[in-house]
Every structure is written in C-alpha cells, then in structure tokens.
Amino acid sequence: MKQFPLLLIALASIALGVWFGLQSADEKENPYAHLGGDFTLQSDQGPVSLNDFHGKVVVLYFGYTRCPDVCITALSKVAQAMRTLDENEREQIQPIFVSIDPERDTPKIASEYARYFYPGAIGLSGSPEEIAKVAKRYLVIYEKVPMKDSAMDYSMDHSSIIYIIGQDGKIRSLVHHADTAEALVKYLRETLAGTLPKKPA
User: Where are the chain's structural domains?
Assistant: First the structure.
C-alpha cells in the first residue's frame, strides 16, 4: 500500500501517454476529448447520468470511502477549490465522486462520503461490472489488495486523477495528485470560460 502513489499514478500516466500518442493531429488540440463519455450510476437519490449535467462543468473523481489518504487529499482539494470560487461559478460546477469499491460502498455510503467534503457533491456507486465499464472509459486503474489480519479485509489501490469535464460533456483537463487546489481553481475557471486549460507557468 505504501508504494501505491508512485506505482499507480505512474501506471496511469503511462497509459494516458500511450493513449494520447494514438490521437490524430486535430484531436491533439484537446487530447482528452475522446476519453471518458456518458455513464449512469446510482446515488442515494436514484440514477444519475453524466449527461444530466450538460451545460455545467463536472469535477469527477474515482476513489473509495475507506481510502486512508489519497482520496481524502483529492476530495479536500476539490472542496477547497469550490469554496475559493464565487457563488456564480459554483452554481455552474458539479463535483461527482464515483466509488471503485462497490462491494462496500453502497450508493448511500458513497453519497454521504462525497457530501462530507462538499455539501453539493454527488456520490455514485453501482455493480462491479458497471463500475469497471465506467473506469475503463476513463482509464482509471484500480485493484483490490488483500489485507491479512486487518478488520478492513482489503484495500483498493487506484490511480488518483481529477477529471474536469466541460459543458459539452468532454474532458477538458486532468488534474494530477501533485497539483494544488489553486491550480484546480485555474483549470475550472478556464473551462468555465470555454478555453482549454493550460498548465501554470
């Protein structure tokens, strides 16, 4: 588990790099445009689809509620960024958390966890097959890791990327684990303005 951040984030970066290299010249203007896509999973209020938020910017993160550190860092970063934005900006953005541990994270548990970090966030879960299908679309890497002599039974190693999805439903930027909340605010504002986010100088 201690090796998770470097190993899984490195694997995710390699996978994304290979994927970007296969894109055409036109697609490289926004190399994320054909990554991801619509999906429908369950919240504690019923089914939720990405397309429900067409016209808004979506901040999407994959993790699990029993994550001891990485998810807490990422979702705290999202919450900090949302609180930095003004009210008008916040109304145009929807944070979404998707659990990659549906065996333990019911829609109710995932929803309560997401709202703990930010009241307006939505938590989603589904069947293992549904989660695997969505994760594959977003190149999310995750794996169940048995924990002997632990009440948790197992943990979930997973990549840690925050996806910023534009008003058209296409990914505009990937925010990596090392990026700051300030960088996330910058990317969100650029996406709200309809421009492709650029890395800070």
Answer: 4-22+39-192
Q: How far is CA 116 from CA 26, 65, 113, 153, 200, in A?
A: 40, 11, 5, 24, 29
Q: Residue 199, Cα to own-chain centre: how many angstroms?
A: 18
| 25 C-beta neighbours (distance < 10 Å), count | 6
**Is 12 or 135 the better-scoring residue by pLDDT?**
135
Instruction: Say which DSSP state 164 is in.
Output: E
Question: Which amino acid appears at position 2 of this protein?
Answer: K
The answer on pLDDT for 71 being more than 70 is yes
User: What SS3 state is found at 86?
Assistant: coil
pTM score, two decimals? 0.84
- Please determine, looking at this structure, whether the domain spanning 4-22+39-192 carries the CATH number 3.40.30.10: yes
Full 3-state SS string of 19-60:
HHHCCCCCHHHCCCCCCCCCCEEEECCEEEEHHHHCCCEEEE
CA atoms within 13 A on the CB side of 98: 32
- Rg value, the chain, Cα: 16
Q: What is the pLDDT of residue 26?
A: 46
2: which residues sit within 8 A by CB, 6+ positions away? none
